[in-house]
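Quick note —
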Amino acid sequence: MLELKNIRKTFNAGTVNEKVALNGVTLTLQDGEFVTIIGGNGTGKSTTLNAVAGVFPIDSGSILIDGIDVTRLPEYKRAKYLGRVFQDPMTGTAGNMNIEENLALASRRGKSRSLRWAVTPKEREFFRSKLASLGLGLEQRMTTKVGLLSGGQRQALTLIMATLEKPKLLLLDEHTAALDPKTAAKVLEISDQIIAENHLTAMMVTHNMRDAIMHGNRLLMFYEGRIILDIAGEEKKKLKVEDLLHEFEKLSGEQFSNDRALLG
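Predicted structure written out below.
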């Protein structure tokens, strides 16, 4: 479903602020894989997701989504293949519109538009059933302005919006980092549910080692713009935080210094 072939990206090349962000990242994701990504600050985790989404052009390499070469496609043309949820709960929804209107926008993404705006009774019932699956009571608040929702409610709504029209790939970029622990756990539970029910291929960047271990069926660790650890299946299920720390120190020659990842 996703192929990254030796992708490289350097920001501010040739200046004193030069930063090698991606240093030959190669990765293949099969249909239905749910990959969690861990690593220190500035190691290339979110940069990889942004490269896939087309936020910036890569310097070299290629990106294929479901066999389609999107390497040179601009961000807006890749949007039809992707669902995205960001760290900031304010991103991904229109706060001055109500829940129903936000869902209508998401359902019509990538489709031909007409002058008709009104939500049909059939659409409304479909939206209500999707919201009910969250267990947050939002199906009873469909005319509520999204700006009045809590951060966790907005992230849950964004997850529904991002997957309403089944994407080829779901990108979750530290989507629980701005939430309190209890709310973050609920949003992760909803993420697992949506990914499993829709058999989605997903990539989740997280700052929390425990979350990286508990969720998904494959784990990647980044260091200095490259993947240094790739664990899946039964081996991943047996992992502990101490195991990840040991592997990181062995492969990088450094101690893992991100307290948020260790204590989160």
